[in-house]
Each structure stands twice: as C-alpha cells, then as structure tokens.
C-alpha cells in the first residue's frame, strides 16, 4: 500500500509540475552537472517504533511498526500491531519530503538545522502541499 500511495503522490506532483520528479539530485564536481536519483526506496517494516521519515543519505522512506497500547487504543485492536506504512497521510507527507528534496538539493535540509526560525513554517508548507496534492 505504501508503494501505491507514494506512486500516486509522485504522479500528482509530476502532473502539476509538468515533468518528471526526481527524488534527489547529486552534484558531480568533475562534470559540473546534477545527476538525478531516479529511485526512491520504500521500506514498510524498517523500524520497530512509531516513526517514519525521509532518509536523505539513503534516499529511502523507512516506515515503522509498533504494538498498540491496550489502554489508549481508540478504535484499533488493543495490543494489536500498528504500521505507519498503512497510514495514507504519513506516506504522502514523507513522499512530499523526497519531492521537495529533488526540486532543490538544499531547500529542505537548509531549514532543518537548529536555530533556523522558518523551520516550522516550511514543514507546515510541506504538510499542506502533501495533503492538498492527493485526494482521499
């Protein structure tokens, strides 16, 4: 499911931007050009914790899984397994991070350093773009 959601998100951005979207571009010093990375690796069971993120160094989306607490389970099975790769909003948000990183190689990383005041505004823009890009 994570792969299908990520592919749909990328397709929506490609349609909106009018061209191919790459996950990341690396700078080739000897040739003075950008070399795009065309593959995004998705690992749906990579972490045994309630976490998912975009790994810049691996150009991958590792998703976590965890056991739901019995006391605060809500509508879910108490003590059952929860998979972040099955959550549409999490997959769309992390895929949007890869697209933004591909648009400009320093755009996302420059604003995640400590002490940068615009960081939360930038993350909010990514969240809004992610949620507005892919209809439910």
Strand count, sense and closure of the main sheet?
3 strands, mixed
Over the alpha carbons, how many angstroms does the gyration radius reach? Answer: 16 Å
Q: Report strand order across the widest sheet.
A: 3-4-5
Strand content: 15-25%
Mean pLDDT: 77
Q: H/E element string?
A: HEEEEEHH
Poorly predicted regions are 116-120
Q: For the terminal residues, how far apart are their CA atoms?
A: 14 Å
3D shape: elongated
DSSP helix fraction: 25-40%
Structure class: alpha+beta
Q: How many distinct helices?
A: 3
Secondary structure tally: strands: 5
Can you give a write-up of this model?
The chain is an alpha+beta fold and about 140 residues long. About 35% of the residues lie in helices and about 20% in strands. α1 (about 1-15) crosses α2 (about 90-105) and α2 (about 90-105) packs across α3. The longest helix has 16 residues, at about 1-15. The two termini are about 15 Å apart. The strands form two sheets. A three-stranded mixed β-sheet has the order 3-4-5. Strands 1-2 form a two-stranded antiparallel sheet.
Describe this structure in a few short sentences.
The protein has 136 residues and is α+β, with helices and mostly antiparallel strands. It has 3 helices and 5 strands. The strands form 2 sheets. A 3-stranded mixed sheet has the order 3-4-5. A two-stranded antiparallel sheet has the order 1-2.
């Amino acid at each position: 499911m994570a792969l299908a959601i990520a592919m749909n998100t990328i397709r929506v951005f490609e349609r909106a931007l009018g061209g191919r979207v790459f996950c990341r571009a690396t700078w080739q010093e000897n040739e003075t050009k950008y070399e795009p990375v065309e593959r995004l690796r998705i690992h749906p069971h990579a972490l045994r914790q309630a976490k998912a993120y975009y790994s810049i160094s691996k150009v991958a989306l590792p998703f976590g899984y965890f056991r739901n607490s019995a006391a605060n389970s809500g509508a879910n099975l108490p003590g059952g397994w929860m998979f972040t790769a099955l959550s549409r909003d999490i997959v769309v948000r992390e895929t949007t991070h890869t697209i933004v990183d591909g648009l400009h190689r320093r755009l996302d990383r420059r604003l995640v350093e400590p002490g940068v005041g615009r960081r939360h505004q930038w993350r909010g823009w990514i969240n809004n773009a992610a949620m507005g890009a892919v209809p439910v």
